[in-house]
Amino acid sequence: MSVSGDDDKRPDPDRLLRAVNALETGSCKLHGHLKVFLGMSAGVGKTYAMLRAAQGRLNEGESVVVGVVETHGRPQTAALLSGLTVLPRLKHHHRGRALEEMDIDALLSLRPCLALVDELAHTNVPGSRNEKRWQDVEELLRAGIDVYTTVNIQHIESRKSVVEDFTGIRVHETVPDVFFDQADELVVIDIDPAELLERLAEGNVYQGEKKVQARENFFTSVNLTALREMALRFTAGRVERDLLDEQQLRGNKDTVHATHRLLVAVFASPYSETLLRHTKQMADSLRAAWMAVHVEDGRILSDQEKDILARNFALVGSMGGELVSTSDADPVRGLLRVARQNNVTQIVVGKSHRGAFARWRQGGSVTERLLQGSGDIDVHVVAARRRTGGPMTVEKASLDQKLVDVVPFHHTGVVLGALIFTWAVSAFLAPLLGYQAVGFLFLLAVFLSAFFLRRVPVYVFGALAGLVWNLFFIPPLYTLHVSAPEDIMMLLMFFVVALSVAGRTHTLRMQGERGREREDRTQVLFRFTRDLSLARTRTDVVEWVPKGLENACGVAASIVLPETSPSAALPLVKTWRGTFALSEKELAVAAWVLANGKAAGRGTETLSNAEGYFFPLMTDGRTLAVCALALPKTRHVPRDILAVTESIGSQAAVALEREDLRERALQVAVLEKTQGLYRALFDSVTHELRTPLAGIEGSVSAMLDSTTSGNPERMRELASIMGDSTARLRHTIDNILDMTRIESGLLVPKQETWDACEVVQAALQGTARELKGRPLIVNVPDGPPRMVCDFGLTQIALRNVLLNACLYTPAGGPIEITRFESQALQVKGVACVGLRVRDYGAGLPVGSSEQVFEKFFRAHPEQTGSLGLGLSISRGFLEAQGGALVGYNADDNGGGAIFELHLPREEP
User: Fold this and answer.
1) Which residues face 485 on adjacent strands?
2) SS3 305
3) How many CB atoms lie within 10 A of CB 733?
């Protein structure tokens, strides 16, 4: 943070900060450097100072691009644009006018080191991607681009109402306070008000008639002095906060502050705006957290009140406050409950504007009751002012509209119909029961109406029922005059009981409806949470998230999954699931949300022309997916929808992250297993190649020995060793090559008809050396049924099975080969011929009847002479021909393992 007036020759702190960032991040910027030039008003030289700082970056050899700069015809400012790349502005057509805006996409594609963006609080042309220019700046920062920008103090959200109060001028454009929290530097451009007034008089601020208007309205000495103080105080507060944070990081124990937590109530009232801004300023001065609490008391809000409440909620978010909603028939009780649950130390409340009767009816004003029940919590009473001239006011609403909001037309018909029906029934029963008993019928009708009508129609019904009872039933008839004292007392009690019971019944009904809504929402969230907990794959989560949103929000919903691409500016949309059909335009909005991790679309300030509301599913700052809701047209997303999306969104994000972690764990396990197989393969191949090579090398050396050359018997022995070693080496190499053929997909069998005995004979010849000295039992008769197979592949498969039997059968143990057939012997519906090979060794380990066909698996790792590829190759060769290979242990007393080769049978 830096505060400066005129430029000097001291080292540029911006350059130092950038150098430190480059060292820390290895020149890989994840977020741009933001420098804000703050002024008390127009004409102080913010743009001039920004351009001078940019020229310094340009002289250092960095790329600088002007996104948008307004020189306002000032030659000194325009001269500083020399040498800078000025980006052409994007033209928009709005209401028949051609308007220009900063081309954010072109700026992102250029990716300069520094972008200059003037007038931070500017509102973009309708139809632009972002509603406000400060949102464009956030995109540039997220892209890793440094940004220099300018703003005046009156455009800071929390200072807006104060400026409006002492200047009397409405501020239409603001920047949220949370935006300035990410500023790396805040430079205040300070100037004496008298000097600024001289600039205005000389025409260096405004020209012509605009100069006269500014001098008469905004540019007064009093206003400028107050604005200057606000700018300096705002910057000083930021400097103090940064200094205290730095001291705490360094472990300075002398810097100890009491923890404050502020609370302010937010209602559907035009007075709440002032209270929210005042609370934000108090929180900044105390360096404290603050929260805004809305208490739902069951009262039905009009459309305009809902809009005001939504704007107040948005204001809380823009100023960095925490928004909490609760339900209670008594707002004061609800506020105090939340305050004590969250350890609030100070409550901010406005002076009551209600009349004496309203305060008496409610047992005192909200302010008085808070003061009485606050206990050890401090209460600040603020003179809240109604904002005038803007969208936060309600005076412009017509009386007819207000009546429609509180007394719907169909309720009026119900009141009149119920009144006429009750009068008719009472007229029939009055001669039998008397006029006093008839009063209870009217009281019952008023009580029942409270279960179906709003509060005001019920009060109107009660008043009309009392008047009808008096006019047509209480003597003297057809007049409002009541003669008997007991009738006067009874009529008064009727009004009191009817109105109080009706009001209380209506309140209980509304509370019951609210409770049912909360219960339904809780049930939906519970079912959604239960379904997510049962999810076993990422696909399950993706299928259930849109369904949960549809059940909770009552609108069509979809989920969009990302597909990363190094060359794409925005994440690519991989797929979407759900009932909300997403067009190319909507998928582009989803891609923006994936890239920026912020909500967009209908009801937001970004891409508001979209057909739906898009919000990210995030964990630890990483966007995993985007959800889309097909909301109706609205300026603000309803609070209940936001609450549901926050709850479901957080759970869905956790579920997606859980599945991602599970997939990563499986990948790690596979990787570890693969590495283990590679190590085993390397060791086995090394052993299987080195052993025969050593035998060959030793035999050759011995044959070259002069003492051996004259011994024919020794020479034959060495030649035999060389033959065995060569055969073993060839077998190892053949296995590796055969496995390569299988996995490459280049294996094309040549299917022909062969006798089983021909295949067996060829396999026995290939394994004659290994079978030497072993009893061999062959039961393979000549003739049909013949098998359809590739002769070469089949004899290799059988040879590998025989070699495996030799390897695991003790010396002298028999090996049996038998042909068999059966009607049940089929592979994928094709009749087969079978060859059964049995050994009398130790058999297959328990539970390994399928594992033995995996690559590099050896039932007894200590056994040498094999890579563990033979059976895997055999199964691959047979399956390529439409056959199969199975293995199991013999179930008789002889023990050993049995392997069956199934091959298609020739059709007769």
Assistant:
1) none
2) helix
3) 13
